[in-house]
Amino acid sequence: MNTDSTPIVVFHAADISNGEVVVVEGLDLTIRPGEFVYLVGKVGSGKTSIIRTLTGENPLLSGEARVGSFDLANLKSKQIPYLRRSLGIVFQDFQLLMDRSVEDNLRFALEATDWRDKGAMTRRIEDVLEAVGLVNKAHRLPHQLSGGEQQRAAIARALLNEPALILADEPTGNLDEETARGIMRLLFDINRRGTAILMVTHNQSLIRTFPARVIILENGICREIASQA
User: Which of 2, 48, 45, 8 is nearest to 29 (CA)?
Assistant: First the structure.
């Protein structure tokens, strides 16, 4: 695990909006390198709004917030692409390009983040595919993969730029329980190598099986309800 104790995410007295109204008031939350944190709460409680604030999609209304070296309270529009490149983002619906192979999905993501050395791109693609167990599926189109394999491809994409933090918004939401557990084992394996993960989920069974910090949003307030190793 990463031994650097400098927080990678800090919210202090932060008001979070869904783009229109405040949904979380006075948020205080710190995530350190190598931590795994669940974010739970009812639909509409503000979980995804926090994720969108971290990626610069929703502006911070008030208070303090930082992701790595990025000050979200004073974030400029030209900084947003660089903020997002510093993060790994995994979505519930995978968001793969359906007309491109797994390898070409990953190559597209690298090119979009200014990689130019073709040899370096090929090596990085091979590394992340090996990390998620998809080396033999590199040339498959997304529709030729199972749901779990598509999510593994999405996780590989999130790993490309070696982020210190992965944001996973309901990454198992479209998967059956057995497949979801496989994805969780993969995420925890990535986490043990030092990558912090903030995961939004409704799945209490997964939280019990894969314990970690649990942050709950209720009535616009955020609090920690468990801290397990």
Answer: 8
Measured between alpha carbons, how far is 102 from 113 in angstroms, rounded to an integer? 17
Q: Cα separation of 160 and 112, whole Å?
A: 11
Rounded to 5 degrees, φ, ψ at 149 are -70, -40
* CA distance from start to end of the chain: 13
Q: How many residues does the chain have?
A: 229
* Token duo for residue 7: 């927080």
Query: Which residue(s) pair with 223 in the sheet?
Result: 216
CB 39 within 8 A of CB 217: yes
- Is the distance from CB of 14 to CB of 63 less than 8 angstroms? yes
The model's pTM: 0.91
Helix/strand/coil (H/E/C) assignment for every residue in 47-65:
HHHHHHHHCCCCCCCEEEE
pLDDT tens readout for residues 24-80 = 999 999 999 999 999 999 888 889 999 999 999 999 989 999 999 999 999 999 999
Phi-psi region of 178 (alpha: psi -120 to 50; beta: other; left: phi over 0): alpha
Beta bridge partners of 225: none
